[in-house]
Design goal:
This protein is α+β, with helices and mostly antiparallel strands. The protein has 17 helices and 13 strands. Helix 9 crosses helix 10 and helix 13 crosses helix 15. Keywords: Heme, Iron, Membrane, Metal-binding, Monooxygenase, Oxidoreductase, Transmembrane, Transmembrane helix.
Length: 500
């Protein structure tokens, strides 16, 4: 080839390459910036990664709350290569999740939780006929065993006594209460599900606590690999594999208790716990030879969901409660004084006492508001085209409920960053409790809400009825800095517990 021709050919290849790269960049920008007609507005985002870099600079729920001020209470965002709609504030959350619940009850199929659970159980199942049936069954059965009723008080208070006995051994000394709070909340679920509790020094029981805690931590990290699939090619990234491994370990922990129930199961006998009722329902369906969601796979997964939703979340909220009471000893004293004045120390606190303890109830509401341990809830998807806030959201769109925004809105709450239980009181009565959305809203709200509320009230009031918590002498006050995983929890801290 002649030199001139060779040079022209080289220029041609260079120009072709530049044009290809430019076209690719334009195409990627188009994918990153384009939105369907009448779709909620939002930041453009970067090619491939979307707005993930922005979300990683700060707490994601705080970033999304700030973006809502720039765009709208209903706005869109690119997470990796997926468009998602974010719901912010009381009005948008209620319009979508309550008034248009039929359209917002789906679940994404590509999140780590959905993949690991394979859409089984109650948290990540679709809101189809099978999913609705299993959810109704679970709610009905939990109520049968006392959720939301005084009959469950005895079990909770019995467990609290075991917990306080363990705490009293360390009276006057610095102690991290995390393990004690987890021991109690896990055993309450075990009593309802398996009909038995475990000793706190039982190594198998402690293994369960470790596995579930690890699941929570790993799941928060794993989400990144789902929204940015290229990260899965990096050799050191094995988070999803670890979650699968942890989930299988939890299944193996649960299975012996199920096997024991199956071995002694008698359809004619009165069921003693959740597993008994489930086996009875499953057996009746098998006898009728009708297709059903009541199978052994869903049994295991539902129990896992009950552990995930009903143990560590409540224990974490209690950790936040004690943290704020230690940082505000004047508020702690008001709660203790109210409990002692209205109930005394000679009998157990009861749910029937709740209406006599408005300040205590206000403190619990304020803890739920300011901690908001699941600030982005569990993601939803739309089941059909729907309009919210005047915007058109197509079917199968991922939806992120930003519960944090509803709890920190300065137009609703005076000084939202401050711990002020008085915001829930007016003329000595509790107000605005309906504005707390910690358990989410609508048809996919937390199944165990009533159980959690009973636990929070009975455990916290019993602790304060007989104990005082303070910052250990010589130690710095604990921080309220938040650690973000699948839930939000405080940094480890120690308190000094004095029994009265």
């Amino acid at each position: 080839m002649e030199p001139a021709a060779e040079e022209n050919h080289s220029h041609f290849l260079t120009n072709a390459l530049l044009c290809t790269v430019a076209s690719l960049i334009v195409y990627l920008l188009y994918l990153s910036w384009s939105r369907p007609n009448k779709f909620p507005p939002g930041p453009y985002g970067w090619p491939l990664v979307g707005s993930l870099p922005s979300l990683s600079r700060d707490k994601p729920y705080k970033v999304l709350t700030k973006l809502s001020k720039q765009y709208d209470d209903v706005f869109s965002i690119k997470i990796g290569q997926r468009l998602a709609v974010v719901l912010n504030g009381q009005n948008a959350l209620r319009e979508a999740l309550v008034r248009k619940a039929d359209y917002f009850s789906g679940r994404p199929t590509f999140t780590p939780g959905a993949i690991v659970s394979e859409g089984k159980g109650i948290i990540n199942a679709q809101h189809d006929e099978n999913g609705r049936h299993l959810r109704r069954f679970t709610l009905k059965t939990l109520k049968h065993f006392g959720m939301g009723k005084s009959v469950l008080e005895g079990s909770i208070l019995k467990e609290v006594r075991h917990m306080t006995d363990a705490i009293n051994i360390h009276s006057g000394m610095p102690i991290d209460l995390s393990i004690h709070l987890s021991n109690a909340t896990y055993n309450i679920i075990c009593s309802m599900v398996f009909g038995k509790r475990y000793r706190y020094n039982d190594q198998r029981f402690q293994r369960l606590l470790t596995m579930v805690a690890d699941f929570f931590k790993l799941s928060g990290i794993a989400a990144m690999t789902k929204y940015l699939p290229i990260l899965r090619l990096i050799p050191w990234n094995n988070i999803l594999e670890k979650i699968h491994w942890r989930t299988n370990e939890i299944k193996q922990w649960i299975q012996p208790d199920i096997d024991e129930h199956i071995e002694h199961f008698d359809l004619s006998s009165e069921p003693k716990d959740f597993v008994d009722v489930y086996l009875a329902e499953m057996t009746r369906d098998e006898l009728k030879e009708q297709p059903t969601s009541m199978n052994s796979t869903n049994l295991v997964r539902t129990i896992i969901d009950l552990f995930l939703a009903g143990t560590e979340t409540t224990a974490t909220t209690l950790r936040w409660a004690i943290l704020y009471l230690v940082l505000h000893p004047d508020i702690q004293k008001k709660v203790r004084d109210e409990i002692i004045d209205e109930v005394g120390q000679d009998r157990d606190v009861s749910m029937a006492d709740k209406h006599k303890l408005p300040y205590t109830e206000a403190v619990i509401l304020e803890v739920n508001r300011i901690s908001c341990i699941a600030p982005l809830a569990v993601f939803h998807t739309t089941t059909d085209d729907v309009t919210v806030g005047g915007y058109l959201i197509p079917k199968h769109t991922m939806v992120i409920p930003n519960l944090w925004s509803a709890h920190m809105d300065p137009e609703v709450w005076v000084e939202p960053d401050a711990f002020m239980p008085e915001r829930f009181l007016h003329n000595g009565k509790v107000v605005n409790s309906d504005k707390i959305v910690s358990f989410s809203l609508g048809r996919r709200a937390c199944v165990g809400r009533q159980l959690a509320e009973m636990e929070l009230f009975l455990i916290l009031t019993t602790l304060l009825q007989h104990h005082e918590f303070s910052i250990p002498e010589g130690m710095e006050p604990p921080t309220t800095e938040r650690i973000v995983g699948i839930t939000v929890f405080p940094k480890p801290y120690e308190v000094c517990v004095v029994k009265h």
